[in-house]
Amino acid sequence: MKSLKPCHTFQIDAQSEDIIEIQDNSQIEILIKEGIFQRKFLILGSGSNILFTQDFPGTVIIMNTKGIHKIAENSTYVYLKVSAGEEWDHFTQYCVDNQYYGIENLIGIPGKVGSSPVQNIGAYGVELKDTLFQVHAISLETGKKRIFTNEQCQFGYRDSIFKNEFKNRFIITDVIFELSKIRSFHLEYAALNSEIQKLDQPLTLSLLQETILRIRNSKLPDIKEVGSAGSFFKNPIIRKSQFETLKSEYPKLVSYPIDEEFVKLAAGQLIDICGWKGYREGDAGVYPLQALVLVNYGHATGKEIQVLFQKIQKSVFDRFGISIEPEVNIW
After folding, report:
1. Is the model's pLDDT at 319 over the cut of 90?
2. Strand ranges inside the chain, DSSP E
3. What CATH architecture is 2-63?
4. What residue segments make up the domains of the chain, in order of their start?
5. Which of 86, 158, 160, 178 is the catalytic position?
6. Average of per-residue pLDDT values in the chain
7. How buried is residue 305: exposed, middle or buried, by Cβ count under 10 Å (0-12/13-18/19+)?
8. Exactly one of 115, 228, 231, 255 is catalytic; which is it?
9. d(CA 22, CA 129)
10. Catalytic-labelled residue, pool 86, 104, 127, 327
11. What single-letter DSSP state applies at residue 159?
12. Hey, is 33 helix, strand or coil?
């Protein structure tokens, strides 16, 4: 058995039968021939979106391929092919340094590039799907390569075809991004816009990067010091009629319009209203600066984190009649 503690950001002391690190895509073909994917397996990037509540009875595959390559450009756009094992933060920094616009609002999200389409990561009013051009993957059944267009990925809120129909059927090897060379920013998110308004200087990618990281660091723990998986719950989407009813009792309830019928609420605010912010049971807790984040203060087990998040779910449902679902994958 091998320890998974260094392989995921919650730092839970779980184990697996084996761990294989992929540094070159040619290794995938070998693993397919060896029948690794016909047995129990789990593909990880940085392990920044998983909670282990038990040991994993199989092989953990860690993508660690590297590379960022410009494959095409015109006067407006640049197309970058990024290896699945590239750290997301390294890629976003590359884009800032080269003045490529589109993913700067996603700076600071832990994880690797190959995981980003699976979750359709998002932050501060921007989602991955806004800049993704293609996903390159290999079928774990046939070994054949396949290219998915943006539309074929069937992106939804923290969702994609890779979490549903094609879960454990493909391994993502590269992601192609279409980024703008023309100066443009997405400042629709209220908290971000408010901070930008305070700046007394022209906005640049570097300045926006600093601002977003300052906002993130003011309410999220450093995963190198405190075990967590960032935002633990998805923001719930409810009907406007239900929201209006809740608004009469909770006038400060935050909402984001989805369409004419639905709105999205802030799960962190709901959890906070229920009194969970800063709560702690042993080493399992709710982060004091952001109720959306569950943390491992050192020696919490996955089961203890699970018990805590289930208590929070019940509390929110009992008070608001709203089900909040984990954004984090539970094993």
Report:
1. yes
2. 2-3, 15-22, 41-44, 50-51, 56-63, 68-73, 77-83, 122-123, 126-127, 132-139, 145-149, 170-180, 227-231, 237-239, 255-257, 262-265, 280-281, 284-286, 293-296, 329-330
3. 2-Layer Sandwich (3.30)
4. 2-63, 68-180, 227-330
5. 158
6. 92
7. buried
8. 231
9. 26
10. 327
11. B
12. helix
In the chain, the largest separation of any two C-alpha atoms, in whole Å, equals 61
- CATH level 3 topology of 68-180: 3.30.465
Q: Which residues pair with 281 in a beta bridge?
A: 284
Q: Does the pLDDT at position 303 exceed 90?
A: yes
Is 29 among the residues known to form the active site?
A: no
pLDDT in tens, 225-244: 889 988 899 999 999 999 99
Q: Distance (Å, rounded) from C-alpha 23 to C-alpha 19?
A: 13
| Residue 327 annotated as catalytic | yes
Q: Contact 7/48 with Cβ under 8 angstroms?
A: no
Taking CA atoms, 276 is separated from 235, 246, 301, 319, 328, in Å, by 16, 19, 19, 13, 18
Global confidence as pTM: 0.84
Among candidates 44, 57, 62, 46, which has minimal Cα distance to 14? Answer: 57
- State phi, psi for 157 to the nearest 5 degrees: -70, 110
**Tell me, what's the pLDDT at 180?**
96
* Alpha-helix residue ranges (DSSP H) falling in the chain: 26-33, 88-97, 116-119, 190-197, 205-219, 240-249, 267-273, 302-320
Cα–Cα–Cα angle for 228, 232, 238, nearest 5°? 170
Edge to edge, what strands does the sheet with 237-239 contain? 237-239, 262-265, 255-257
Is the separation of the CB atoms in 14 and 57 below 8 Å?
Answer: no
Helix axes 205-219, 88-97, angle to 10 degrees: 150
- Give CATH for domain 227-330: 3.90.78.10
